[in-house]
Each structure stands twice: as structure tokens, then as C-alpha cells.
Amino acid sequence: MDILVLGDSDSSGEHTGGVSWVQMLEFDLRQSGIDANVRSIGFSAVPVTAPDYAERRVAELKPEAVVVMVGAWGFTYTMVQLQVEALFGKRVKEWYVWLEHRFESQTRTPGADPPPLNRLARRAVRRVIGTRAQISREQLTERYREVFRRLARFEDTDVIAMTYQGIGDHVEAGNMPAQRRRFFAEVQRAAEEHHYGWVHEPELFADLPNWHDYAIDELHFNVLGHRRILGTIAPKVHALAAEPV
């Protein structure tokens, strides 16, 4: 069973030594006697080219099943670099990104919590310059709708849409909790219009109130987090594998 995950740096295991719920899912399926190959490729629904990209990669790789990671971070997670680009242009933004990466490398150990100097400097920059999101909630919803429409062209390919947990302050600020609930409800309706599988576990980490217990930062989970995510997607995939051809 060939499974393609339209994922990101988190599903690739980039921040956990190459181990994520994707690799865990493949191992889990094989332990159950299912000849499975699970592959994650980089994907973001933010660019206007996202539907074309998703359709092209599925056509190229011809998987039996596709898992689409649905994340709200495109409108919840704001960045200084996007505000810099809006105010001063692309060249200044590139200079700022270089400066930010250099500061990060000199003040923070990879995978560790940021020290006080790092946190203070970032907070000051965000307050002085401001931040901006990549896309609006409405635009991101429509982008996923179009991705789902494109994938429906592959009649022999099963599709599961799986939401990703929000982590940190950016998902709790202002009316963001309500915005996220509306977003996931709208994307769920879009998925169900095509009879796609839907995996949404908003209380997955409710017993761990400190997100540092299951995540590396506000966008990436640690191994414990990936194990819990596996527990949400594995039953759906096992059910697909058990269906008669």
C-alpha cells in the first residue's frame, strides 16, 4: 500500500532526527502485516499554486492513498519578516531573514528552549516592527477546497484529511480560537463533500497543559507528540487497508 502524505518539515521528521508519525505509521502498518510504503513530501496550501502542485505530485507518484495535513498556521502564525517585506520590500526582507537566522544561531541551541536574551529580543522586534500572517482564513479555506477538488479527479485514490494541532500563544490570541474552529468546520464540510476521511482531535493533548511536553516549538512536535498523532491517523489507514479491492 503506497501512501503519500502532503506534509511539511514536521511530518518529514526534520526536527526529530528523521522520526515522525509518518515513519511510525509505516512501521505500524508493516508490524500488522501490511506491505506499506508511507512517503511525506513538502506541501503548503498557502501558495496560489498549491492545488496545481498537489495534483501534479499525485499524478506523478500514483499513491493508493493520500493524507492531506490541514493546518491553520497560515493565518494564525504571524511573522516579522512578512511585515518587513510589506513595509520595505523583498530585498530588505531577505536581509532581515539573514540577520534573524544569524542571531538565532548565536543565541539558541537547536531543539532547546530559547534563553531569556533570545525571547526578549524577539518580543521587542515583534512589538516595534509588527507581524503579518501569510494568508487570510477565508483564502486558506478556499485553497483547501480547491486541493480537494483536484484530488477528486483521481477516482482510485483514497484521501484522508488530517488536522494539525495548534500550539502556543498564536492560537489563543484574541478571537483566534473561534477563527480556528470555524476554519476546521468549513474544511471538514469540504472534505466530506468528496467523501474523504476526516481526522480531527482537538483535545489530543488536553492532559498535557504545557505544550513543551509534546512539542519542540510552536510549529513542530517532539517524538511524544508524533506518537499521539499516530494514534489518531493509524486507525483510519488500517481501515482503508482492510477494505476489499
Structural summary, described in words:
By secondary structure, this protein is an alpha/beta fold. It has two domains: 2-77 and 135-242, SGNH hydrolase (Rossmann fold, 3-Layer(aba) Sandwich), CATH 3.40.50.1110; 80-129, no CATH class. The chain is 49% helix and 11% strand. The chain is built from nine helices and five strands. The chain has helices at 21-31, 50-61, 73-76, 80-88, 90-107, 116-129, 137-151, 176-193, 223-242; strands at 2-7, 37-42, 65-70, 158-163, 197-199. The chain has a five-stranded parallel sheet, sandwiched between helices. The longest helix is centred in the last third of the chain and has 20 residues, at 223-242.
CATH C-level of the largest domain: Alpha Beta
Strand adjacency order, main sheet: 2-1-3-4-5
Q: What is the CATH architecture annotation of the largest domain?
A: 3-Layer(aba) Sandwich
Shape: globular
Write a concise keyword list for the protein shown above:
globular; 2 domains; alpha/beta; 5-stranded parallel sheet; 245 residues; 9 helices; Rossmann fold; 49% helix; single chain
Task: Lay out the secondary structure.
Elements: E1 2-7, H1 21-31, E2 37-42, H2 50-61, E3 65-70, H3 73-76, H4 80-88, H5 90-107, H6 116-129, H7 137-151, E4 158-163, H8 176-193, E5 197-199, H9 223-242
Parallel strand pairs: 1-2, 1-3, 3-4, 4-5
Helix pairs in contact: 1-9, 2-7, 4-5, 7-8
